[in-house]
Amino acid sequence: MKKVLLLSTGGTIASIKTEKGLTPGRFSRELLEYIPQVKYFAEVTAKDLLNIDSSNMQPEDWLEIAKEIVRNYNDYDGFVITHGTDTMEYTSSALTYLLKNLSKPVVLTGSQKSIEEPLGDANRNLIDAVRFACEDISGVFVAFCGKIINGPRAKKINSKSYDAFDSINYPVVASVKENYVCYHERACQDFEPSLSSYNGQVYCEDQIVPDVNLLKLVPGLDPGLIKEISKHCRGMVIESFGLGGLSDRKRNMFDALENALNRGIYIAITTQVLREGIELGTYALGDKVTNLKVISGKDMTPSALVVKMMWALAKNQNFEELKKVIHTPIQKDIY
Question: Where does substrate bind (predicted)?
């Protein structure tokens, strides 16, 4: 029987009702009491790391979660992290980049309803996460509403519905149906154990640079905002229009970007559009962006791009090196 470590960080799944609304208040051992059936296919040990609303999750917390996995790595076959849904996609991306030589599954899950809700989604999600943590596969994943999603490709798309997450620009890795894990054909190739197992001891990179901001463009945005934001960060991700368009009429974004670049700020460009990514050379305005010293986010999710820049900045101070690291695929996070 596989051994699984359950690490609780709070979130809706562990929340209780108070006069001021839901707040995390349940411990990991209590979560396990709601899913007694897992004892038939896994030996689960529970441990509390945090008990917070995931809106309070910080980059320093990602490091602590990663370190806890490394500390317990040799004693377990897989890991489940219960987490709030609001920032789960950031944490799943961060663990993808921080954990090195990973040869076991790390599965994040949560819920849209507290585990005490009798008709909620928490029980199913937690059972599915434990089940997938028993699989012979390596990587970081999100288990939600019967889907297993590649960690850096996860995106919260619904604020209330149980089907809260989807996989962006990459197929769902697997589905959990009637206690069976059914893999997507593409995932069988990309995540086959023989291809995803590494030689060497697992370890956690111990630095991350949180000074990366995300700016979403809107028509009429004052370019001066880019200048002000650049005073408070080392990196910036800009959600552009469509395939990578920026305004150069009336409110000229290009001058503001050049100013930020000249101040030593690293800038990556992505799109506000949910799927299919950017292609900067398609339109004249996008082609104009290629003349700047910026990094294309290609088909990455904005959240994964932000986190990858935070991780990459901790080890790279040169534009070309940073660009190379961001464009190097890690667990199929970019094409």
Answer: 54, 85-86
- Active-site position among 12, 109, 271, 301: 12
Task: Spell out the residues 6+ positions from residue 215 whose beta carbon is closer than 8 angstroms to its own.
Answer: 225, 226, 229, 236, 237, 238, 239
Q: Which of 82, 85, 109, 270 is catalytic?
A: 85
For the question of residue 12 being annotated catalytic, the response is yes
Helix and strand numbers (H, E) in the chain are 11, 18
Is the predicted pLDDT of residue 192 greater than 70, yes or no? no
Q: What is the pTM of this model?
A: 0.96
The per-residue DSSP string of 233-274 comes to: -SEEEEEEBTTTB---SSS-HHHHHHHHHHTT-EEEEEESSS
Tens digits of residue pLDDT in 286-333: 999 999 999 999 999 999 999 999 999 998 779 999 999 999 999 999
Residue 295: how many CB atoms within 10 A of its CB? 23
Report the chain's C-alpha Rg in angstroms.
20
| List of domains in the chain | 2-204 (3.40.50.1170), 212-327 (3.40.50.40)
**Cα separation, 165 vs 171, whole angstroms:** 13
Collapsing DSSP to helix, strand or coil, 146 comes out as: coil
Strands 203-204 and 99-100: antiparallel
Which residues contribute to the annotated binding site for substrate? 54, 85-86
